[in-house]
C-alpha cells in the first residue's frame, strides 16, 4: 500500500536523522539522552495522534503496529544511552558514599537519604511508560547489588566487634549503624516499588534480599559471640554430675550455675539494649 511505503520512507529518514544527531552533535545528544522519557512520550503521543486522526471506518489503518515499533526503535540509541546514564549516576553516588578508601567511616543518614531519593526520582521519571520503567528497574537492581557489595566491605569482624562485656565498642556501633542504614534502604525501596506492577517487585527482590542479608551479616559477629557464650554456660550446667554429690552439696551447687546462666542472659539483654 502507498501509506506503508510512505511510512517506511519516513521512518528510515527519521532513524537516519536520530543517528546523525547522536554521533555528530554532543549538545543535542545530551539533551535527548537526559530527556529520553520526554522524547519517548512525545513520539508516542505523535503516533497516537496519527492513528486517531486517520481512523476512518472501512479503511485500513494508516499506521500499523509494526510501524509504531519501527518509530520507537528509531530512538532506541538514546534509550540505551539514557539507561547507561541512570546506571552511572547512581553507581557514582554509591561509590562516593561507600568509599573503599575509608573503610572505617559509616555513611550519614543524609547520604543514605540521598541514595534513596535518587532511586525514587529515577523511577518516577519513567513511570508513564511501563516498558521503560522495567528497564530502569533492572539498572537500579545492579546499583543495589553494588551497594550491598560496598556495604559488606565496611563490616568489622575483629575481636572488638565480638566483645560481650563493657560498653559497646566503636566497631560494634559502626556495624549496628550500618545495619540500620541497610534496613532503611530495604524498607524504603520496598515501599516505593509496592506502588508499581508486581513484575517490578520481581526484578528488585533478589537485590533487596542481598541488601537485607548484608544488614544481618553486619551484626552477626556480636550475636554469634553472645550465642557461643550462652551455649558455654549451658554446657557447664550439663557437665555437672549432681548424682555424685550429697543432697546438701547439690543444693549449694545448683543455684550457683543457674545464677551464672541468669546473670549471663541479663548481661546480654542489657548489652543489646545499650547498642
Automatic annotation (TrEMBL):
- Tell me which Pfam families the record gives: COG5_C
Q: Which InterPro entries match?
A: Cog5, COG5_helical
Residue span, Conserved oligomeric Golgi complex subunit 5 helical domain: 2-46
Q: Which domain of life is it from?
A: Eukaryota
- The name this protein carries in UniProt is Golgi transport complex protein-related
Amino acid at each position: 500500500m502507498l501509506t506503508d511505503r510512505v511510512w517506511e520512507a519516513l521512518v528510515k529518514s527519521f532513524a537516519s536523522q536520530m543517528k546523525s544527531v547522536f554521533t555528530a552533535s554532543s549538545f543535542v545528544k545530551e539533551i535527548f539522552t537526559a530527556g529520553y522519557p520526554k522524547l519517548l512520550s512525545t513520539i508516542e503521543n505523535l503516533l497516537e495522534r496519527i492513528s486517531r486522526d486517520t481512523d476512518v471506518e472501512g479503511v485500513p489503518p494508516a499506521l500499523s503496529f509494526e510501524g509504531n515499533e519501527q518509530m520507537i526503535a528509531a530512538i532506541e540509541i538514546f534509550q540505551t544511552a539514557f539507561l547507561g546514564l541512570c546506571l552511572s549516576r547512581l553507581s557514582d553516588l554509591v561509590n562516593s558514599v561507600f568509599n573503599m578508601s575509608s573503610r572505617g567511616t559509616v555513611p550519614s543518614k543524609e547520604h543514605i537519604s540521598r541514595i534513596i531519593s535518587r532511586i525514587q526520582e529515577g523511577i518516577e521519571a519513567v513511570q508513564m511508560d511501563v516498558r521503560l520503567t522495567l528497564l530502569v528497574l533492572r539498572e537500579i537492581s545492579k546499583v543495589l547489588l553494588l551497594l550491598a557489595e560496598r556495604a559488606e566491605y565496611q563490616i568489622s569482624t575483629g575481636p572488638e566487634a565480638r566483645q560481650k562485656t563493657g560498653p559497646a565498642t566503636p566497631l560494634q556501633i559502626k556495624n549496628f549503624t550500618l545495619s540500620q542504614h541497610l534496613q532503611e534502604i530495604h524498607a524504603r525501596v520496598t515501599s516505593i516499588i509496592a506502588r508499581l506492577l508486581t513484575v517490578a517487585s520481581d526484578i528488585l527482590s533478589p537485590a533487596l534480599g542481598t541488601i537485607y542479608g548484608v544488614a544481618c551479616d553486619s551484626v552477626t559477629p556480636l550475636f554469634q559471640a553472645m550465642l557461643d557464650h550462652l551455649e558455654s554456660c549451658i554446657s557447664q550446667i550439663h557437665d555437672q554430675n549432681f548424682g555424685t554429690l550429697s543432697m546438701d552439696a547439690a543444693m549449694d551447687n545448683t543455684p550457683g550455675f543457674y545464677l551464672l546462666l541468669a546473670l549471663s542472659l541479663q548481661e546480654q539483654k542489657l548489652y543489646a539494649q545499650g547498642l
